[in-house]
Design brief:
Elements (H helix, E strand, L loop, with lengths): L5 H15 L5 E5 L4 H16 L5 E4 L5 H15 L5 E4 L2 H13 L9 E6 L11 E5 L1 H17 L12 E4 L23 E2 L11
Parallel strand pairs: 1-2, 1-3, 2-7, 3-4, 4-5
Antiparallel strand pairs: 5-6
């Protein structure tokens, strides 16, 4: 088996970091239909539950990953009640979250902290995004090794590989502020927001 849980293990690290900043109302934005985002949600969920906190998943389906972040964040702001930090399952999800927050006039990180995963777009965002850096060369080398081993030793039991990553702390995350936005009319069940409709909505 090749690194089937690495996204979960390193999202646990990022979730612990957000908790260390005092955040408790942390929302994960992603799509349950994309397996790599689901694995990252699982790591986040585990740490939230270990801390005695309710995990929250804003789950939106779209072929555009940035749109998932935009629409998922818009839905949170309309329905979630209190939110002080967003864990975007991918840096492009975070880019969409940035757009939604700015449309509402919210500041990052003064009003809501945002963190991502992948560190592919993170330094290009403003403020620069806190993210999990994935070392792509090591992934490629490990994949090649798995393929070669599978050919040479097809009877070998599956193995799990550890992919090196690093938490890159940047300006998009700050200490919890009690001024986190709140709206009436929460529509969540068991911490999961479900979405109907597709496409970017007309700005309010």
């Amino acid at each position: 088996m090749f690194a089937s849980t690495w996204g979960a293990s390193h999202s646990r690290q990022l979730t612990r970091y957000l908790l260390s900043l005092g955040h408790r109302d942390i929302w994960f934005v992603g799509s349950a239909r994309l397996p790599w985002l689901t694995r990252r949600y699982e790591g986040y969920r585990q740490i939230m539950e270990e801390a005695g906190l309710q995990p929250h998943f804003s789950d939106f389906e779209s072929s555009n990953v940035e749109e998932i972040g935009y629409l998922g964040t818009k839905f949170i702001l309309r329905n979630a009640g209190t939110v002080s930090a967003i864990f975007a399952g991918d840096d492009n999800v975070a880019r969409g979250a940035y757009s939604a927050l700015r449309e509402k006039g919210l500041r990052i990180p003064e009003d809501i902290s945002v963190a991502g995963f992948g560190d592919m777009e993170a330094a290009a965002l403003h403020p620069q995004l806190t993210s999990i850096r994935v070392f792509q060369r090591q992934i490629g080398a490990s994949l090649a090794k798995v393929v070669i081993e599978g050919i040479e030793r097809p009877d070998r039991p599956p193995r799990q590989w550890v992919i090196p990553t690093e938490l890159i702390k940047r300006d998009s995350c700050g200490p919890f502020s009690p001024k986190a936005p709140q709206e009436e009319g929460s529509e969540k069940e068991n911490g999961i927001l479900t979405h109907a409709g597709h496409g970017i909505p007309t700005p309010e």
